[in-house]
């Protein structure tokens, strides 16, 4: 009788964070095979669809949202503080104290990814009008990197009109019109690291 050994991918460019999470997961799920990838490209070069779970850094998630949305039941975003709700993708706050982090991972495993946001997230007001769609999040990240509308359209393989529409929706939802204001919002909400803009 063949047993299924769960395989877990950790996509985290910070080596120390990746190894720390790997150690915790190995203690909690000793039967699992856990692999770490410092970049999305290295995961794709491997066998990207073989994993039962993807623990993915927020930056990698926002740069490759479409890939992880297709694997929504398997994806968990690693955040470093308060994060917006990500269309049902669970968020794991990696800055929690170790005992709370372990409890959050165990809860995640028990509920099949239901409700793994950090404790403060439940006290945040839920205003779905301000929630960015995955595509709007991708556009926001590219705007903060200084790309113009045409470059964003080319990179995301969408029309220029669609980019303009997404940017309009983003500014209406967030109430922010300037690129510098959007960059500050993106950093404060974990969409990009401050040193990447």
Main traits of this protein?
197 residues; alpha/beta; Rossmann fold; Arc Repressor Mutant, subunit A; 2 domains; five-stranded parallel β-sheet; 9 helices; globular
Order of helices and strands: EHEHEHHEEHHHHH
Strand content: 5-15%
Gross morphology is globular
Q: If you compute it from the alpha carbons, what radius of gyration comes out, rounded to the nearest whole angstrom? A: 17 Å
Strand order in the sheet with the most strands: 2-1-3-4-5
- Tell me the major beta sheet: 5 strands, parallel
Give the strand tally: 5
Structural class: alpha/beta
List low-confidence stretches.
113-129
Helix fraction bin: 40-55%
CATH architecture descriptor name of the largest domain: 3-Layer(aba) Sandwich
CATH topology of the largest domain: Rossmann fold
Describe, in plain words, how this protein is organized in 3D.
- The protein is α/β, with parallel strands linked by helices and 197 residues long.
- It has 2 domains: 7-123, 3-Layer(aba) Sandwich (Rossmann fold); 128-196, Arc Repressor Mutant, subunit A.
- Helices cover 46% and strands 12% of the residues.
- The chain has helices at residues 15-28, 40-45, 58-63, 65-70, 98-111, 134-144, 149-156, 160-174, 179-188, and strands spanning 7-11, 33-37, 53-57, 75-79, 91-93.
- A 5-stranded parallel beta sheet has the order 2-1-3-4-5.
- Helix 6 packs across helix 8 and helix 7 packs across helix 8 (160-174).
- The radius of gyration is 17 Å and the shape is globular.
